[in-house]
Amino acid sequence: MDIDVLLQKTLQEGVEQLFGFTPGEAMLQLQQTRKEFEGDLTLVVFPMVKSARKSPAEVASALGTYLGAHAPEVAGFNVVNGFLNITLHDSIWLDLLRQAVEDENYGMKSTEDNAEVVMIEYSSPNTNKPLHLGHIRNNLLGFSLAEIMKGNGRKVVKTNIVNDRGIHICKSMVAWQQWGNGETPDNTGIKGDHLVGDFYVMFDKHYKEEVAALVEGGMTQEEAENQAPSLLAARELLRKWEAHDEETVALWKMMNGWVYRGFDATYRELGVDFDKIYYESETYLMGRNEVLRGLREGIFYRRDDGSVWADLTAEGLDHKVLLRSDGTSVYMTQDIGTAKMRFDDYPIGKMIYVVGNEQNYHFQVLSLLLDKLGYRWGRELYHFSYGMVELPSGKMKSREGTVVDADDLIADMVNVARKMGQELGKMEDMEAEEADKTYKMIALGALKYFILKVDPKKNMTFNPEESIDFNGNTGPFIQYTHARIMSVLRKARETGISFSPTFPQAMPLEAKEKEILKTISEYPAVVEEAAASYSPALLANYCYEIAREFNQFYHDHSILNEPDARKRNFRLVLSECVVKIMRSGMGMLGIEMPDRM
Question: 576 and 477 share a domain?
Fold first, then answer.
């Protein structure tokens, strides 16, 4: 809030006059006073003690007295050791509420024409299996980060890279050819990405049986794993695909088409989208050309076997292969090609990759290679490294078919939301269609919030039942608070009670009213910090905090039955402002807020 700037200016003048030195900006940082102490803002004076040649309490008392005489915003102060706790006049908080209500985009920054272009890559699925719980965390983090960057005035390009080539998809293709019996999404009723994923699991089952039979016949384990007929068939399909064999390419296009339609349906259910989708099948050759350019320019080197490498020992790393001896590309080469294509398409200022923490080394190397190849944002690319997500039952394995598919999880969440809602008697007065829509909103809100409230860097366990608790730090608790406020605002309008952000300057505030206003004042800083620290969790937990503060206030104070018309007007405006901030904050997390629950 602007009051911080005003007080810092007065504090600087006070330090100069009282103690004869000019404090650095870091010495004058104000923070919210902790709830167990009296006050609104706190200044820690310990950094000034040495220069002031006074005790901490003396420095704090002198500055408090100076503020009382020179800052009309200050109503009083108290000193606790080296902490100066400042109390502001209630009129300051009323002015803040008025500003927050009148500013349509309170807490957000507008996007200027010359704003930095931030590209955020997330999702990055393989076309041999449906999206699963791990992809859900990736998609939710990427989408939310994109919305938070928009809220901070950046131009954002949301992008996806689909891993649509390689041995993995060829394994599903082999399984369909040998054991598929002509099955398609249309004639089976199975969603396309699930059908292809079933064939991937089927391949692994037959492959293991073949390996076991070969070992029993006298081969070593390694020999059997390399000579299993199904694997040889997959390798042959990959060779044919790279040679542009028409029949192979047609099969590849058909099965990938099934998967893409399935992915699109899941993305719609999750409420995430992309501005641009890239495909590895279209970028890997560009990557190969970039590596060969680097070789010609002396950036990379060739070994005797024909393979191409990058020497990163000067940067404290090792040597990295970029092209195999047979000229084929590796994942790093493909990522270079994708980066080149993106750089050609957009004036990227910042590139953010949302990828799990098992790829930390990969992106460290990619950053150096792009920088060496001349891409100005290469050195500055940011790997948004996040931890793994598991279920209470443990880790998941896609080859063994033990992964929890995103579609199944979403359906299960809706069922859990419906069951818990019915047990609690919620939505009883709704029509079936509205109730179903609300249950889905609650289910997705629970899923998204439970995942996004956790520090992205941490591993986490997702518990569906725990996430749909209507109490505590959950999405449904925040949604229910929103619906409760909307009910109050509806009743006010239905009974002819009008309200507007005009308050008497001398109107005293209750303690819990002031706590909500303090929380409202923090919103712009939280939005800014969420972008600076790449942490949707900061925004998620702020939304819980403002919902919790409102519920505590609502428990102790009446709104519609408040006899003082001035107070009733203020509380209705305060309630409307809380709704506005909830919608804004939860909206950046991709969470819808129901008006009724």
Answer: yes
User: What region does 81 belong to: left with phi over 0, alpha with psi -120 to 50, or beta?
Assistant: left
Q: What share of the chain is helix, strand, coil (3-state, %, to 5)?
A: 60, 10, 30
CATH classification of the domain holding 570: 1.10.730.10
- 207 and 62 share one domain: no
Residue with tokens 């994708």: 338
Strand-pairing partners, residue 385, are 355
> Which residues form the domain of 81?
2-88
CB atoms within 10 A of CB 80: 16
In angstroms, the CA 34 to CA 44 distance is 12
**Residue tagged 């997702």 (tokens):** 462
| Whole-structure pTM value | 0.90
Q: Is 39 left (phi over 0), alpha (psi -120 to 50) or beta?
A: left
For residue 323, report the phi and psi dihedrals to the nearest 5 degrees. Answer: -135, 135
Does 135 reside within a domain? no
Total domains in the fold of the chain: 3
Other CB atoms within 10 Å distance of the CB of residue 164: 21
Burial category of 144 from C-beta neighbours within 10 Å (exposed 0-12, middle 13-18, buried 19 and up):
buried
Q: Residues with Cβ < 8 Å from 100, sequence gap 6 or more?
A: 106, 520, 523, 577, 580, 581
Amino acid at site 563 = P
Residue 332 lies in a domain: no
42-78 pLDDT, tens digit per residue, is 999 999 999 999 999 999 999 999 999 999 999 999 9
Helix (H) or strand (E) holding 195: helix 192-216
Alpha-carbon distance 218 to 522, whole Å?
Answer: 70
CA distance 321 to 307: 7
Q: For 536-576, how does the pLDDT look when each residue is reduced to its tens digit (9 = 90+)?
A: 999 999 999 999 999 999 999 999 999 999 999 999 999 99
Any domain includes 366: no
SS (H, E, C) 74-117: EEEEEEECCEEEEEECHHHHHHHHHHHHHCCCCCCECCCCCCCE
Residue 245 is assigned to a structural domain of this protein: yes
- Same domain membership, residue 73 and residue 171: no
